# Entry
Amino acid sequence: MKMSLKSYQEIMKNSMLEEDPNGNSELEQTFTSTKKSPRWGPQHKGAQELAKLYGPGKRLQEIICVYTCITLMIIDLILILKHIHFERLSVACMSAICGIITADFGSGLVHWAADTWGSVELPVIGKNFLRPFREHHLDPTSITRHDFIETNGDNFMVSIPILGFLAYSFNTKSPQDIQQDFGWISYLFLCSIFVAMTNQIHKWSHTYWGLPRWVLFLQQYHIVLPRKHHRIHHVAPHETYFCITTGWLNWPLEKIRFWPTLEAVIEYSTGCKARDDDLKWAKKMT
Ligand SMILES: [Zn+2]
Ligand SMILES: [Zn+2]
# Structure
């Protein structure tokens, strides 16, 4: 199946060898034929500089967000199970699928915005929220070395207001109103769960060893982002396939040229150049 406008050979040639994150086969080339060293990985000067910017303040924010979000997920799940009625099940399922699609689109939009615009030098958001995106392009497998807190802290933070709103609604609405809004509640719950899980799913898409069987099953049947599918994004200059939750929207968005059109409008109206900062970090070679 042709998944994108790039050929399979182009993707394999221009993205990092993730089955070989230490670049052994590329290093082999260094000793035998050319003087070329791997273009990606932990040895990249820019990646090392970016990794050092991860500090204790950021870590604390992530810990608070992860624990708050998990607490809210459990509370909301208990309330949903308490109120679910069999006759509302089909509405709940349809709404949940719409919630997952919304989460996939949201992941694409945030990922695209963070990859394409802004700079690590920007106050507050630069170091705290844009830095991981820059690091990820230079050292894609660094995500596999991040623990649960570092991987999920920021996405869990985004889900907190939605899950908090749901918990508040359950406690203030009458049982009749809850039944009437059950489709809407299922939509928001699944959307926030998938938003929260996005970077964990993304981490799995970069993991080539030791994945549990059920994760491999979800990837194989494209219920979550498959590894081969995400590799299309990791071809420089990282300008397509931004959706990283399920990846269901990547192909249709590519077909309608959604991202280049959006970029052209922004470049025209602001004068900013897409991926300027990302390119600057990519050039920081040893
Ligand atoms: Zn990216
Ligand atoms: Zn990635």
